[in-house]
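Take a look at the protein record below and flag anything odd:
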Amino acid sequence: MPTDVQYLLVTGEAYALLRLQGVLDSTTASALRGPLLSFVADQAPPTVIDVGGLRVDDVAALSTFADVARETVDWPSGQPVVNLPDHSGAEWSGAGLPIMRGDTSAGHLPRTMGAEVLSADLEPVTGAARKARELVTEGCVRWDVPEAAGPACIVATELVNNVVAHAHTPMTLRLGLGLTGDAVHLSVRDHSRHLPEMGGEVSTTAYGGRGLLLVQSVAERWGTSALPDGKLVWAVVPPDLEGP
């Protein structure tokens, strides 16, 4: 018998809520990964996935949620939280995502990333990188990690300029602190499915146009996540990382 999973974005809550209904099995699991990643990428945190209407027919299919957990762990928006009914949930222990039950108010959400995430919607035009640097500097000062502002601005500039030069789509920049509270997590989400590619050797003395090797040189780690209608590129910049 054909199976399916429907998902509904619920508005008006204190957090972004995606409600799943249907049957989770090996057939539906693979089709669910992309929408789950897009939900986390496109919604302001915190994000909650309500699975009260989801019947798990194949426990192995929960690996899709574990994939989402691994993919989003370094995103500034943080990992989504799974909301379970009080009477179920043993099989979800291997899903890899934070779990919540009962009280679904925003104040009772598990802490999966920093307490605050800043974001800006940017157009693919000249000046977008400057606005990105202003937001990064504001965040680093607000979070008392001013020493991270320089390298984080370099990363934001390169990620934004890549969208301006190659993707040509509107984008969303987000940044926040990780669970340790001392590293800046950045991401740029655009609507081109063309993944960025490494260029040649570059200098680290100037902003802009220096390619992903420059991002790699100042970030502790970085990566890309393919989405159904585009991509998200993320990076983690600790304040005490020494440059090359």
